[in-house]
Every structure is written in structure tokens, then in C-alpha cells.
User: Fold these one by one.
Assistant:
Number 1:
Amino acid sequence: MKRTRAHCIAAGLVVCAAVAAGMAARAELPPDVYRKRQQAAGESLRIQVLSVETKETDEPRRKRIDVRTRARVLGVTRSKSGLKPGALVTVVYVHSAYKEPLTGPSEVPILAKGKEYPAFLERIRDKQTYSPAAGDAKRGYTMGVVRKAVITAAGRGTRQFPATRSIQKELLPLVDRDGVTKPTVQVIVEECLASGIEDVCIVVAKGGAAPFQEHFSRLNEAERRVFGNKEWALSQADALRRMQERITYVEQESPEGYGHAVYQARGFVGDEPFLLLLGDHIYISGTKKRCAQQVIETYNVAQCAVSAVQQTPDDKLHLFGTVTGRPLGSEPPTYEVTEIKEKPSIEYAAEHLQTPGVKRGYYLCFFGMHVFPPGIFDCLRYHIDNDIREKGEIQFTSSQEMLRSQERYVAVETVGERLDMGVPFGYVETQMALALNGVERTETLAALLRIVAKSAAWEPFGQV
């Protein structure tokens, strides 16, 4: 007997489970019929894996590989077995030739071909998280770990003209909180990696990958001669090299809207949930947890689409997509979304988008950060195939609303601040916010006070 135990934390595993009733009749069914009936049961479990144990036994004409996954149920879809979130269960993976898995009341069987077990175990053994292979969903085991992120950076940056004639908006520099000058996109990539993301996809305009690739590339010989004795620079160069290994680029062939840009990442995402961020937004957390980490943790519990939101005054509604929903009474404040509207008018919002618990005159507006299941691409494809546009473009919000109408969708108030560096004043505001939250905060405050005092002496504020 050989046993292997591995601990997988914060991982969601979707399995097609059999209905508890009628288990006695399974012994007479051929394996392929049993599998079809099992899938037809229509029950989908989302679980957090606690441990995995394997046991191999040889029996005449019934070789069985028994893989038992101890787990906590996070959610159940169309349940017919009485399982409820919070319950502890054992998911039993049984060789397809073994017709009668011996399972108890707290055990859920799943059949698959025996040759699939070694690959499954290899991917989860001794790992903190499990990343599914492309075909795992078809085999019946998929884990909803958010390990991929998509950053859109295909816009022209017209609001930052003429600076963006020679440099992509997302490459405009900022002095980050650590005091290092970086292009905006690097700050966002670091947000992802610090939140547990493993792979990042940057969506660029046609032919637009080169400047990004150049930034994240290794030092060339000339650069090495310049920075050879500067340890801080070599450390930064090494960090860029490590980031480069995790970045994939996809092109948006033509500028047809934000939804169209996101759709280009479907091949990169595959069958996994993913984090979506804007390439011109900087996020500063108000807690020790990164903003992206807060959203991912909400997904880990809800196991459905999650949008980060922030209470926003009604005079800013023309800038943001807005949601309304039913408070779930959790902390941080989380809402079951009942409607999504792109940049609503104040009148529409007052009539349709007021949310219980949100102070009067404020609404839940998008923070610029989401976690989506891969099903969002089906909604995007519907809009693209049917050429459904708003203001001539394939919008993203309409696909979000379509997804919401088909499955559960929640919003979470993120503790932090979103900053849009894609507009001139927003760029200034972003830099000030980074500086005031960074290692040179005291010096920044002193400099601002000095500048304000001199400016007031030269030109009283009332006359500006």
C-alpha cells in the first residue's frame, strides 16, 4: 500500500458528481453508461481541497486506483444530494472499470479512466495550488484557482496627447511606492504577481508588443557596462527578467472597443477563471492586502464572477459602469448583483441603481478590477458574432450584464483607491497618491507644503 498526502489551500475543484439515490443500481451498469448517468445528474460541486490520499489495490478483473480528496464544500449547483456549503466531504476518484465505488454518506464518487490519475496527482502533489490542464474540465475535475490575469493596453491614449505620440500610455513612467521609477504597466503587473497570479496576458494594439517586450527584456551588453557596478539597478533588471517569463502578449487587430480587446485573451485564459485589470489604472490598497488579492479572495469564497466596486458620488457616474444589488451582510461588504449599467445618467441611477446600505447620492461603481469565469467569453462572442455595438464599439458592460442574467454575479467593496492615469489630472493625482503612500512620504508632504506656500504668495488661490 502506498499513500501520498498533499495539502492544497484556497483551491476550488469542480467535479461532476453522482446523485446519492440509486447507488445500489450502479453495479449492473457498464462503466460508460454509469459515467453518462453520473454526468446527467447535473450536480456541480465547488470545493476547497484539504488533503489528497491515494491507495492502489489489485483485484481480479477489477484493478482499482482509489484517490480520496478530503474537502470542504464551497458551493453546490442544482444539488440533488442534500450537500450544503460548509460540509466536509471526501471526493473519491475511482477507476472507470470498477463499477461499484464503495462510498459512504459523506463521500462523492467520480469516475475517470485510470491513466488520468497519475497526471492529476502529479499536478497537485506538494503544491500549494493546483492549475488545471486544458482538458481537465472534460475529465470531470477542474479547480477554480485564479492564476491568470489579463491587462488591456491597446488604447491609443488620445487623452494624453501629445505625450502618447511617441510612447504608449501604459508605458508612461511613475515613481512607485518603493521609490523606483517604473512604467505604469509594470506597477500593474507587480500588483498581479504580489496577489498570487502566475501568468499575465497584456492585450496590445496591432504591432504594439515591441515596446513592452523591450522594457521587460534582459539587459544588453551596453546596459550591463553602464549598470555593472550598481546593485540596485541589477536587482531591478533581474525583477524585469522574472516578469518577462510570466508575460504573454496578444494583439487586438483593430480598435473595436474594450469588450473586443478582452475577447482577444480567450486563448490565453482557456478554461480557467482570470483576473481582469485596466492598463491605465493604478490601485492603492487601504489594508495590508493588495486590492487584487481582496477580489481574488472574494472569488475563492463565492466561486462566481466578482467585480470590485467603490461607493462613488453621482456626479462621477458618467465615468464608470455601475451596479446595484442585494447586500449579503458580509465583510467586506458584498452584494448579489441584480443590474449592471454602463455610465448611467443621474436620473436613471436614482430610479434603478440605488443599493440598500449605500449612502444617499452614492452608487456602487466599478473599481476597474474583476475576476471572471471563462463563460464571459461566450457572452463576448455573442455580441461580436451579432455585431451588437454601442457607440460603434463592442462594449464589455453589456457582456457582463448578459453573464449576470445567466449565473450568479457578486460585487465587493474593495478597501483602497483606484487612480486613472490615462487623463492629465488623473496622471498628476496618481503620482501624488503613490508618493504619499510611499517610502518618501515625509519628504513629499514637506515639498507639497512648500510649493503650496510659494504658490499662494505669488498668486492667491481665489484669483487662479
Note: The chain has a mean pLDDT of 78.
Number 2:
Amino acid sequence: MVKILALSLTLAGCTTSGGSFCAAEHPIRPTQAEVATLSDASAAAILAHNEKGQKLCRWRP
């Protein structure tokens, strides 16, 4: 799960042919069970992704 999440976050910064970041991405909201098993690096990557979405797409927490 964490490896898939890390890969998706890495790819999230890439431009897609399907449209903008806001059209292609969505907030990452892990469950409490997932949060308990996240590494610090994965948690930081999720936070960065969600903050980018808040800034560019006006996502709400």
C-alpha cells in the first residue's frame, strides 16, 4: 500500500494528457489504520500533495 501511494505521489507531479492537476488528482485521505502504518516520508508526501491541491484546486480539508 505504501509503495503504491509513494509511486502515485511521484507521478502526481507529472503533466498528464488528460488535463490539469486539478482535473486528474484528488485529495489523499488515508484511513486511521493506514495512518498508523505510514512512514514519515509517506506522511510528508501525502501532506505535500494535499497542500498542493489546496493551493491550486481549492481543496478543503
Note: Residues 2-57 form one domain.
Number 3:
Amino acid sequence: MAKVLAVCISEKKGTMKHPVDEVVLKEEHGIVGDAHAGNWHRQVSLLADESVEKMRVNFPDIPIGAFAENILTEGLVLYELPIGTRLQIGETLLEVTQIGKECHADCAIRQQVGDCVMPREGIFAIVLKGGTVKAGDEIHIIKKEIKERTFECQRDGLTIRGTEFRPEGENLPIAIVSHGFMGTQIMERERTMYLAEMGYAAYCYDFCGGSRLSTSDGKTEEMSVLTEVRDLEAVIDHIRSLPYVDKDKLVLMGCSQGGFVSALVAAKNKYPVDRLVLFFPALCIPDDVRKGKMPMTNYDPANLPDTFLCGPMLLGKIYVTDLIDMDPFEEIKSYTGRVFIAHGSNDVVVPVSYAERAAEVYRATTPEGMTEDERITLRVIEGGTHGFMDNKEDDQYALDQMRLFLES
């Protein structure tokens, strides 16, 4: 059973906190009398005693509150909790808003203790329901009810099949997640669920002919990035017609080729895309098809066959001809909203330079009334690979950074 070991406060930020018998939590504020309280996203800090124990190997006399934690816990791996997790602590209710933080150079804690575990394993939360918290109070994770159902819509006589994850409520904002080349919606379920837990009516789906395992209609040899653009537009039209969504609040999220597709759709400015989220977007595809060198295949662009194999998947010449003359950066720059890009530094499928160039293009086209920092957020994940496949923590970090972007 997870529980509270101690509660602490401090009168100044950047200093050690001291234990008290109990603390009073207040909605939209934090802990009464604590320096970190206020109407912001880090109202309450939590740290697990299991994390502090790692420090006691070299610093056995570390006092409670040394790492500026408001609530010291036991029995819960805090830093593995997804952002958005709700914690019932005693009579209070908190929502996790941030995992870890940057530790400033003149941090008094680091100077006194020699290291600080809070930036790595501490978490932060806002207060949804106030009350008193004291040592011994139990901690329970509160699960949000998410309803799951399948949906279908049409594009040019083909049926597109997908999945809806819907939290409770009406007039919900929309988030649509598009999968990558040779992928399916199954690969995006966790990311889509993450968005649903944030409060979005969230959707993933299979592109028509998007892979040999696609549940949607269509042949792989008739698929291209531009047919997938039409697929996504059909999905948007269908979802915006649903009675429980806010059709004017739309987030498009795409991964790899799905990121490229999402960026192209957003750039049409046909829909009210409030935010655009791109994970390792495959903006390299036009360059690849021009060279005749794609992952798992090579061909002569001057003598293009009607069909060709790309690994196990049969492609048609339309995949090449639709993109061979395209400048992707010229196409995507007309989107007028805010953009988040997450990309691994060690991505060999889509070099990180494509994400960096996209960020430059978006920055250079910042609309009037918006700052460049508001326009584009680029997170290069050191050591990250394509799809963040080699390290689940990379994907979680990207999702957590995405959450901060969407909530800012």
C-alpha cells in the first residue's frame, strides 16, 4: 500500500524544506504557507523515499525535506506515473503535471547535499480537491473512465476503420493520431489513450492500403502520402460531425509518415487545427523517392516499374510519382498554428536534420501576434531512434513534453 511518510514546507524556493505535522492543500494554489504554492502547474512536489534511498548510500544523514519535496511517499514509483495521473491522498485529489525538472546551477540543495534526485525522479502536481494531508495517509491512483469503440467512415468508396477513446463529458476537444509507413492503428493505441486521459476525444485509425495488416479497405500498391492526406481529411470530417465533440478544437498528431501526412493536412488550413504534434515526422520521403533509395528497397526513378516491393509490402508507382517533385518544407510552412516536434538524435530512418529544418521553416513563418517560442517547440531526444523503439522512456518523455505543449 502506498502512503505518505512525511509532509514538508519551505518559505523560500530553492531551499530545503522542513517537516511539519500536516499541510493544508488548497485548490488552484497548492500547500498553504509553502513557497511553491500559486496558480501554476507545480503547486505540490512529491518524491518517493525509494528515490531518496539511492542517495543515502553516499549521504546517509540526508534529512527529510532535503530535496524540497512537499510530500515524501512510500510504495509508489512516482516517476513512472503518466502525466495526468490523479492521486487521492487522504481527503485531497492531485493531478500529476510534470515528471522531473531542470536543476538550476545555484541550487542550494545540490550545493549542500552534493546531488539532487528531485530533477530525475520527483514529480509535480496541481490540487484538484483541497484538504489536509499528513504522514500515514494512504495514496490511491484514480483511474479515469475511458470508453472505447470502433468507428468507420468513407473515402472514395473505401471504408476507413478506427478506434475512439472517449473520456466522460461533452463538447470534448478532438485529437487524431496517424500511424507511420507499414504501420497500423495498433501502434498508436497507447499514444491515443494518453490523449484521452488528458481529456480529448482521441482517435487512431488505419490508412487505406497503409499496410498488409490494415483493417481499412484499399490496396497497398494504390497508397501514397497524398491518398493518406485524403484519408485523414475524411476522418476529420467524420469526427467533427459527432455530437459530443467541439468541432473547433482539433489537435492533429502524426508519427513518421503519419506526421508528414498530418503536417500536409494542417498546412491546408482547411480545418481549425489548434496544435500540430509531430513525432519523428518522415519529411525525408520526397528526397528518398527522388534518390530511389527507401528503407528496404532501391529502384531506378528513371525506369520506375508499375509495382515494386518495399520489404514485405507491395507499393505502386503512385507512391513515388505523387512526391517526386514535392518540396515538403514549402508545403508545410503555411500552417498558421503551433507545432511540437519530437525526434531522436540517432534516428537513421529519418535523420534529425529534417526535424531541425522543419523547425526552422516554422520559426521563419511565425504568424503576427505569436512569438517564435510559441510557434515551434522542438525536442531532440539524445540517443533516441526512429519510433523511440529502443527505449520506452524516450516515448514517455516525448509524450510528457507534448502534454506540457498542449496545456501551455
Note: The first helix runs from residue 49 to 56.
Number 4:
Amino acid sequence: MNDPIVEVDGVTHRYGERRALHDVSFEVREGELFGLLGPNGGGKTTLLTILSTLRVPTGGAARIGGRDVVAEPDAVRRRIGVVFQHPGLDPMLTARENLRHQGHLYGLRGSGLAARIERGLARLGVTDRADDRVGELSGGLRRRVEVAKGLLHGPDVVLLDEPTTGFDPGGRRDLWVHLRSLAEEGAAVLVATHLMEEAERCDRVAILDRGSLVALGAPAALKREIRGEVITLEAEEPDRLAAAIAERFDVETRVVERTVRIERRDGAGFVPRLAEAFPGLIRSITVGKPTLEDVFVHRTGHRFWGEHLSRPDGTAAAVPGIEAALPGPTLLPALEEGEVGEGPGPRADEPAGKARER
């Protein structure tokens, strides 16, 4: 088993009186594709900003490659590549120029940089638009260039916040193939996502809810916690139905946001008995094998997209104040004497974007 390269130890963070993270702990190993799964407002982005040295946690500690993200930010920045949710590209430059500028800030030059740029553009499928201004590209293509930029320097640790936003299904699949290849080459890849199908692709996943870590493990192992199949029933009076089912069949029921849930080994065979016993109370019944969302419900007692959280389509209000806006540019290291390149990199207390202005 590879050594841990990312260590999160009791990290807590607050925005004023609002708690964004509470005592979160986990490790990510070299060569691991690790998912950070949670609904919007769950604390994923806050944690990534801490790991990328942009925010000091209220409590706890985080280390990358053995270096503390607060005490040694420059050393951490040399090891990481970051792709934030918010854009960090110059819209007046072409895709190729954006990558070239990024390479210069990391001390890369000449044919080596040119080869990296071409390889990154090809892997993300934007070679044919490489000489178009970024401002003229579609949102999905801009996002591809953003990912290529974050991976350009070959970091040991890759931090990505919702990287497939704006991708079509084919592009999303191709990106995940690339992320898997990075892990197989030895990088630690940490992906924050609210998409269950993306989390399923990870070696392990940490599930966050309202800033707390509620589950940690391989997706298959987490789903095995739910013994059997999951039956979900919709009803006008879910509490009444749940009580009646529990009394009639001596099974455990749970009411979750006006639906009744039952976990049972013979789920498919049990459904006809439910329909026959309570024809006037049940509006619909579904049954299926456990998913990561079922794990979330099992651990928290509420649905992944509840009334208190925003859904991907924005149909419900988000929790305010937890997922703060981020600066766009990828972080850059401060180069030491003897390292390749001439760029000074940012100071320890300076976001990467300021280095461009000096």
C-alpha cells in the first residue's frame, strides 16, 4: 500500500457563526483516485481551498507531502495542481498562450514546455481550437483548457473542484480516463463532485454533509453496509404508512422527506406484499440495489438533495455562506535558486494571479 501524501487531520472551519467544516480527517495515498462527494454547501470547496493554501483553517491541520499547508505554503504549492470551479483563464489569450504563460510561471521553457502543451491540448481534445482566443470558446471547451492548465506541470497531487462542469458525456468520460491514468502513474488525484456516478469511479470516497465527514471508504464497501435492496414508497401520509408497515411485517422503516424507505434482502419479492397490504396508502413503489445516495441517506437520515440544499439544476435554495467564491488562477510555487526557469512565482501570502502583475 502506498504512503499517504495528503493528510487531513481534524480540519474545522467557520465563516463567522456558520460552520463549514467540522473535525474532518482522512488521508489520500500516492496513486489513488479519491472522491470528495457531497451536495452543494457540504464543505467540499472550502476544504479544497485549505488544501491549496488559499485559506487557513479555523482548527486542525492539513499536510501535503509532509508539509503543512499553513506553515509551508510554498513547498505545498510546488507539489500540487489545482482546477477550481471558477475560471482562471485570460479570455484575450488563445488556449495555447494560456498554457504557455502557465508554464513560464512554473519555470518551464523551450521544447519541453511546447511538448507538454501539445500533450495537454490533445488529451483534453482541444488541439483544433488551440489558437482560438479562450473568450471565443464554448463553456465546455474553456473548462477543458482549464483542466489542461492545472495539469501542465505534472503535479504529484491534483486537486479538482467539479472538473467536468460543462463537459458533454463523451468529454466527461475521457477526462475520467485521463484522471485514472494520472493515478496509475503515481499521482494522488482528489476530485470534489456532487455527481454520484463520478464518485463511483474513485478508489475511495469521503462523503461530506453540512461540513462533517459521514462516510469514508471504497464505494463498493460503503454500499455493502446496506444489506439487501432499497424500497422507496411515496404516500400522502408517509408516517402513517411507515408505522403500519412496521406493525404488519415487523420490519424497520424510515421516513425521509415524505418518502418511506425500507432496506431488505428480498426487496423485489417484498414489493407485491406491500402493494397488496396497503393499496389505499401507497402512491408508488420503487426498488433497487444500493447506491452511494442510499449510503448518504443511511448515514444522515435525509436525502442528498433536500429542501435545505441546492440541486444541480438550481431548483432549491443553497445554504448561504458555506461555499465561498474562489480566485480563479491555479496556484504557483515560488521557485528556489537552482530550479529550472526564471519566473519568481508568488510570495507565500500572495495568490497566483498577483505574480502576473509583478
Note: The chain has two domains: 4-217+321-355, 227-289.
